[in-house]
Amino acid sequence: MTGMAKTQFWHLSSPVSTGKLADSEREPEYEQITCSLDPEHRRAGRRLDNPPLVLPGRTVDDFVWTWLSECLIQNHVLRLFREYHLTGFDVKPVETRFKKASAEEPPKLWELVVTGWAGIAEPESVRD
Question: N or C: which end of the chain has fewer CB within 10 A?
Answer without folding.
Answer: C
